[in-house]
Specification:
By secondary structure, the protein is of the alpha+beta class. Helix content is about 45%, strand content about 15%. It has seven helices and five strands, in the order αβαβααβααβαβ. The longest helix is centred in the middle third of the chain and has 22 residues. It is globular and about 50 Å long.
């Protein structure tokens, strides 16, 4: 990692202008995702996160699937804005898909019935942490990414296309690539309204 932790988190933004001209190797991208899956915490050490990396034609296929799914929903309506957005994601180098293994969640609910209703919440929290770790790590390598949520619209076709187990629930998609445009300024609400400190 070439940047300090605070810088990585500060500079992690939603990059919508990306292309395929990536200098980071596939091996390094795989290493980043495997590191995140191994070391990001989860409730009861349940390790429910399941991540899939799509590059090349698989990446293109994902955004073709998403485009056609959304086109069917829009019907005869104006699709130009959505088309442009889909093309911006497809222009990237790859996409990380974030899943959670619902079979493990169900098993934990059965084992620890007192906390049954909490396990899906904790699973979502763990997925959010995995998303941030991967996003920040990609940023540390000079890559731009954004987080998308076209689930559950594309779930079944994605599972069929990449032989995804039925018990894996898709939660998010993270297209990434070489940044071609910087994100705009980000506004921050006053910290004194968001953080309380006592001693």
């Amino acid at each position: 990692m070439t940047k300090d932790f605070f810088s990585v988190l500060k500079e992690r933004r939603s990059f919508y202008g990306i292309n395929k001209d990536v200098k980071v190797s596939d091996e390094r991208i795989k290493e980043i995702v495997e590191f995140a899956v191994k070391y990001t915490p989860s409730a009861f050490n349940s390790q429910t996160a399941r991540l899939v990396i799509l590059t090349g034609e698989s990446h293109n296929k994902l955004w073709d699937i998403t485009t056609e799914t959304l086109r069917e929903l829009v019907g005869n309506g104006d699709f130009s804005g959505t088309q442009q957005k889909m093309e911006s994601f497809k222009a990237g180098y790859g996409t990380v898909l974030f899943f959670e293994d619902e079979a493990i969640i169900k098993s934990l609910q059965e084992q620890f019935s007192t906390y049954a209703e909490n396990f899906p919440v904790w699973s979502n929290q763990a997925s959010g942490m995995h998303q941030l770790v991967v996003w920040a790590a990609l940023e540390s390598e000079g890559l731009g990414a954004s987080l998308q949520h076209y689930n559950p619209l594309i779930d079944e076709e994605v599972k069929q296309a990449w032989n995804i187990p039925a018990n894996w629930k898709l939660l998010a998609q993270m297209p990434f690539g070489n940044p071609t445009a910087q994100p705009g300024e980000k506004e921050f609400k006053p910290l004194e309204d968001r953080v309380k400190f006592y001693k």
